[in-house]
Design a protein that fits this description.
binds adenine, mainly alpha, hydrolase, 310 residues, single-stranded DNA endodeoxyribonuclease activity, 5 strands, P1 Nuclease, binds zinc ion
Length: 310
């Protein structure tokens, strides 16, 4: 009985400690693996608008029942399975040895040195699998999963810190304050910048933010779209190029003027937010473009003109 009471008292004493641990883990998130959920949904909402008819039909056929016919609902899925499919964890990013350039042969591998096991290899691999869609002999791949992985990783490769430095795990080990809140640099780029923009500019509404991005695509960025889409590689993708862009943006914007324990506020937010906006839009356009190349023969026109003018 005395032993039981002692154990109970010990547990009660440990409880506040445990609570503190949970709260501090919450305040300083680590090891998140993507644009946050919202970033991925936005990328895919943009992509949906730029799909050719053929691509939209193929996507509809491949989507799981639970998606309710919307690609955007499955775009965060790869993050949800990264503990279950442990092999998929390194496919969300690529790291460089502390340099501002990306080399596939040097940087695209997992911790066991297996080549191609990074975000660029993953995009090319799942694209290749999806090309077997419609083959007369049934594909041995689960093309529903291939589509959900591809849609997610095209988003990830556009998050600048998903092609970051190995030493700090793409900013995950750089502790910062986002205004008053303790977090890390990677999380700022996955989530905080988007959340602050949504709160300050878009009435906390993701749909309003997506509409603003779509509007920008039809006026401000309309001349850029064809450059973003341009990819000379016939059957592979241009993911290598997107990774090179990301590490450049990581060096010039994400890491720039940041050190351990720094507080980031308005100056950082207002100078980096335009980069985040543009990367979300680019990712959406390029995802649509990849899917149009895979599924549609009407790619050129479909890429240039949005199907449903909104
Ligand atoms: N873990 C290690 N490096 C990473 C990166 N660049 N992005 C996300 N998670 C990581
Ligand atoms: Zn991810
Ligand atoms: Zn991330």
């Amino acid at each position: 009985m005395a032993a039981l009471l002692l154990r109970l008292r010990l547990r009660l004493r440990l409880l506040p400690l445990l609570l503190l641990l949970v709260v501090s883990l919450d305040a300083a998130p680590r090891g998140a693996d993507a644009w946050g959920k919202q970033g991925h949904i936005m990328v895919c909402k943009i992509a949906e608008k730029y799909l050719s008819e053929k691509a939209a039909a193929a996507v509809q056929e491949l989507l799981p029942e639970s998606a309710g016919g919307e690609l955007s609902t499955v775009c965060p899925w790869a993050d949800e399975v990264r503990f279950h499919y442990r092999w998929s964890r390194p496919l969300h990013y690529a790291n460089t040895p502390g340099v501002c350039n990306f080399s596939f042969s040097r940087d695209c591998h997992n911790s066991r040195g297996q080549q191609g096991m990074c975000v660029v290899g993953a995009i090319n691999n799942y694209t290749d699998q999806l090309y077997s869609y419609g083959d007369s002999k049934k594909s041995s791949y689960n093309l529903t999963e291939s589509l959900m992985f591809l849609a997610h990783f095209v988003g990830d490769v556009h998050q600048p810190l998903h092609v970051g430095y190995e030493e700090d795990e793409g900013g995950n080990t750089i502790v910062v304050r986002w205004y008053r809140r303790k977090t890390n640099l990677h999380h700022v780029w996955d989530n905080s910048i988007i959340e602050t923009a949504m709160k300050d500019f878009y009435n906390r509404s993701m749909d309003t933010m997506v509409e603003a991005l779509k509007m920008n695509l039809t006026d401000g960025w309309s001349d850029d779209i064809s450059h973003w889409e341009n990819c000379a590689n016939k059957r592979a993708t241009c993911a290598n190029h997107y990774a090179i862009e990301s590490i450049h943006l990581a060096c010039n914007y994400a890491y720039k003027d940041v050190e351990q324990n720094i507080t980031l506020g308005d100056d950082y937010f207002f100078s980096r937010y335009p980069v985040v906006e543009k990367r979300l839009a680019q990712a959406g356009i390029r995802l649509a473009s990849i899917l149009n190349r895979i599924f549609g023969d009407d790619k050129q026109d479909a890429n240039a003109i949005p199907l449903q003018a909104q």
